[in-house]
Design brief:
homodimer, Arc Repressor Mutant, subunit A, 9 helices, Tetracycline Repressor, domain 2, 70% helix, DNA-binding
Amino acid sequence: MPAPPAPHTTSPVDAAGRRLTTRGQKRRAQLMLEGARLFAERGYHPTSVQEIVATLGVGKGVFYWYFSSKEEFFLEILRAAQTDLRRRQQAAIADETDPIRRVELGIEESLRWFREHREMFNLFQFAITQEKFAPVLRQGQQVAVGDVVRHVKEAIVEGRIRDQDPELLAQAIVGVMSHLARTYLYERDESVEAVADGAKAFCLHGLLG
Amino acid sequence: MPAPPAPHTTSPVDAAGRRLTTRGQKRRAQLMLEGARLFAERGYHPTSVQEIVATLGVGKGVFYWYFSSKEEFFLEILRAAQTDLRRRQQAAIADETDPIRRVELGIEESLRWFREHREMFNLFQFAITQEKFAPVLRQGQQVAVGDVVRHVKEAIVEGRIRDQDPELLAQAIVGVMSHLARTYLYERDESVEAVADGAKAFCLHGLLG
DNA sequence: GAAGGTCTTGACTGACCGGTCAAGAAATGG
DNA sequence: CCATTTCTTGACCGGTCAGTCAAGACCTTC
């Protein structure tokens, strides 16, 4: 995504309402990228702000120019990632009319996203265990489940999925997906296709099929 | 499990090889229980050793009499919980000869255990994101998956489960179970039976059935 | 080239944390 | 009763961390 030209008109603004130049936006993005990487690698608490700025070779003040606190910084990383994942999911199913096929496409695209953003796996999983961060995570997850629920309901109406609590079915799908992604993509570095096929088959047919 | 009498013979020994009196064993257990509770509630890093001992109304030295470090302490909590969960699973399926039924019983009993040890949920999930603790967690999870794999293989041989990679099927089951446990037992406090029924149905029949 | 906003520096502060230890209390055993 | 071992105390140490801030560099605009 190319940055908009924005020559010298109304500039983008950060969370506190300050203006940000193009240069400033780049720094911001740099910090978030590096922060996500380090948080994922060593954990949120064990990673100091000092380490993050040192990796970029800048002073500590830079961090606090762009973010009000380490906590807010982490929340922004989480929100940005969730937004990006959702956008990808939506784009992947946009042209598909078959609800079951939409579920399958959603699984595939989510796995692909997690593959490309392996570092976000640990971050999500850690964030959900901390009271300070869990609400944001839960909200995002609920949105994802809501998407699946709509497809499932539609398919139940069409009589193509057995009549069970749609939310439970959706949650189960999310569970399969995230656990398989962790085990096979994150820990064992296998291919998205193989995992996606396995996940789709299990979600549709279960053990017996 | 009643503590053995052990009047004044060879006494139980702690990790460092020191003897432990009955009183000592109680303190140890107290610390682990309270530690698990606090770690789960506030997180591992944000919970200080000081807080743990203060909650029990004892001095800091007590902690370091029974455990060599905060890290080792946490690992012991994890190991003890995993051992307990596994024992419960094994006991639950001991008398069952049907492999598919064994899977179902395992799901039920695991959910029951997580319901009784809600605090372990966050601990497990946090631990798996930290390089220091992940190996222990992964090993325990692999044991659990291995148990399921055996039942699945047996059922495949009998032609009762479709012929797919047994480990992937087992991992998918674990994924469904842990995510449903988190969502419905941990976050929403629903009944084990309802969740277990949903989980079993999904694992056996998937969406279509 | 001056003015003013944007950005950067890094020393500093106050708080906290994991872990130690000398001293002594409490139980145990003879 | 004394000796030994087990257990407890809490002040203390070295170190780290999130966050501040005065000073100044950079950049844009007029």
